[in-house]
Amino acid sequence: MNGVMKLNSLGSLKFGLAIPANFWNHSQDTQVQLVADIAASQFEHIYMADHVSFRDGSGTDGFVEVAALSAMHPHIGVMISVYLLPLRHPLPVARQLATMHKIAPGRMMLGVGIGGDDRHEVEVCGVDPRTRGALTNESLGIIRQLMGGGKVNRSGGFFELTDAQIKPVVGDGIPIIVGGRSDAALDRAAEYGDGWIGVWCSPQRYAQALTKVAQGASACGRENVKWLHGYQPWVGVADSAEEARALVAKAMEIFYKVPFEKFERYVPYGTPDEVAAQLNPYVDAGCRLMNLKVVAANDAEEVRGGAAIRQHMLNHFAQTSTS
């Protein structure tokens, strides 16, 4: 059995779908129906981004959204991917996690990132962009301790804490998945995460990253982590590659304020089977959490397109796992 097949034999393949582009512009009844449609399409979770003041002041609070979405369906999971942790104090973040664990037990995952695509967003929150990595590491250490139920005392770093404690205890009830493209992000995932979630990278780089995470975790004495590594692509879906490219290019240029050509190399587009074929190599490399940001003609098509991609990829996963 070769290395790819060994990877495919480990664990199941889970799928998340970003909330549709115009979700919050719909009536509440339509929102609830869209969530029901996503659940009926057998996605394990819905995910959303998090920004305080991105580019032109845009953004959305990830915790507010997951709380609202979790109330729209009794079973589907929710995920923030990724939450800009260095822009917040770790104690209230731990409280938010404990609250989500109470109102939606076993249904939440937290993706963590350090931001930086918009330097001003970091600065306007009073954070020095040069320290955001070290600040995030310290925050994750504190949050892990608080989730375990112990009292945290800390001084001499970014935070001064005396007998800080959070109840109810979360324990390992909310997986923390660390995002980021740098080696520092991989080291962060190795030391503090339950997995790493990649973006804008080749399957080859993805496989190399997972090896580095495993090596780093071993060096930290973390030998028995039940890893949940992910990948989070934007994808365009339509009846033709040309139409799909136009849709996803427009959406990404509006959001990121940069030309689509900067991203195109890592953005699959086309029919659902064509998109799935471009994403399968990440699964072969060890991805077990595929978060799809689908751009299509409308919200309903985004759900249908995502569901079709999911099924094509599951078929590939089943075939390679049993070969």
What's the short version?
With 323 residues, the chain is of the alpha/beta class. The protein has eleven helices and 14 strands. The chain has one domain: Luciferase-like domain (TIM Barrel).
CATH class: Alpha Beta
Series of H and E elements: HEHEEEHEHEHHEEEHEHEEHEHEH
> In CATH terms, what is the fold-level topology?
TIM Barrel
Assembly state = single chain
Let me know the average pLDDT. Answer: 94
Please state the CA-atom Rg, rounded to the nearest Å.
19 Å
Name the strands of the widest sheet in spatial order: 1-2-5-6-9-10-11-14
Dominant shape: globular
Low-confidence stretches: 1-9
Approximately how much beta-strand content do the residues carry?
15-25%
DSSP strand tally? 14
CATH homologous superfamily - what is it?
A: Luciferase-like domain
For the termini, the CA-CA separation is 9 Å
The residue fraction in helices comes out at 40-55%
Helix vs. strand class: alpha/beta
CATH architectural arrangement = Alpha-Beta Barrel
